[in-house]
Amino acid sequence: MKLFFASDLHGSLDATEQVLAEYHRSGAEHLVILGDVLNHGPRNPVPESYNPPKVAELLNELSTSIIAVRGNCDSEVDQMLLDFPMMSDYAWVMLANGQRLFLTHGHLYNTDKRPALKQGDVIAHGHTHIPVAEWQGEQIIFNPGSITFPRDGYAASYGLLEDSTLSVKTFAGDVLASISL
């Protein structure tokens, strides 16, 4: 299974178009959105090309391929625009090798506040806008970064699970972080 990860779109049409173009090029089976889909939130500036209705329209075209969780900037009003569920605080994905991916946004569960996880499980979250793919203790921490508001000098990025490797990549093709499962 090939998965494409995006987080923290924050209603930016340009960012969403870039993510979707790369998702289609990647050949991934599913687009995993780790929260903060339509709203920019009160602590962030209004993003360039802010257009939540159009972002929702573009994402709805892929509704059967999207796995999404709620971010701290997502609300029931946002859900009304989307044809796929995104109000769950977390979701699980089971890999063929028996490994589990715990998908969440990062404001409730994260690197420092983990749910009950087994050795070798992956916690995939956004929220910090900082790319990560590494072992921390007994689990793998994975964060695809953000395309709309990358932080700490990182370029806009996305994540990919392909051939038992989790990687964070820039849209220029550079690998920011990578780890084998």
From TrEMBL:
Annotated ranges, domain Calcineurin-like phosphoesterase: 1-162
Coiled coil: none
Keyword Hydrolase in annotation: yes
Pfam families per the UniProt record, alphabetical: Metallophos_2
Gene3D superfamilies: 3.60.21.10
UniProt cofactor(s): a divalent metal cation
EC number(s) recorded for this UniProt protein: 3.1.4.-
PROSITE patterns the UniProt entry points to: UPF0025
Keywords: Hydrolase, Metal-binding
Annotated InterPro entries: Calcineurin-like_PHP_lpxH, Metallo-depent_PP-like, MPP_YfcE, PdiEstase_YfcE_CS, Phosphodiesterase_MJ0936/Vps29
Metal-binding is among the record's keywords: yes
Molecular function per GO: hydrolase activity
Stretches that traverse the bilayer: none
Enzyme class: hydrolase
Family to which this protein belongs: Belongs to the metallophosphoesterase superfamily. YfcE family.
Protein name as catalogued: Phosphoesterase
Organism of derivation: Vibrio barjaei
